[in-house]
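Hey, can you fold this one?
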Amino acid sequence: MTDSFDTRSWIDGLRIRLSEATALEKAGDGVRETGDHILNPDLGPYAKWDGPPRDAAVLIGLLERGDGPNVVLTQRTGHLNSHAGQVAFPGGKIDPTDDGPVEAALREADEEIGLSPAAVEPIGHLAPYLTGSGYRVVPIIGLIQTETAFRPNPDEVEDVFEVPLNFLMDPANHQKLSRKWQGKRRYFYAMPYGERYIWGVTAGIIRSLYDTVYR
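Sure. Predicted structure:
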């Protein structure tokens, strides 16, 4: 990666790669799924879940800044039942009333950080990301109006912050770490940024974005 980041060229390249993936899907090659199991093939895609996968969506929100786009992330509150205190994209389960992943991601972003759906221009989605906890997550990529102000919901979000896309798309910042789980070594990505520790599913989705654009 260079110090100079051309936002529009990057977005144009992303659109092309997403179109190529859609064309392959329509040609009958199926949907390419990513997930925790890519680094842990012996554990399977839903290592900690026995039921059918649960559909979810997250928003990879991009804000144009003077030195390139930033990605909007949240720090979850410490009292939540799952993933408390972790860094996450805005998002959650797809409700029966949602008209697909895009509407679900925008609704959740509105609920969690006060981001109006009207302030987001969806530009595509990544391949579904399968998590060990049983979710099939569709990451939606969207451009956020630069004048947007966030209002974090204190019941779910402790803080909203930005990380330069240039940093996240530099593979030198993609750490491959591991922990023991049920007697096996489980691998995951981590991307520390200052005091923020980005890891697990969030880092895995960022890595999927990198693979989509640059591979």
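Residues 76 and 157 are 5 Å apart (CA to CA). Let me know if you want another pass with a different chain boundary.
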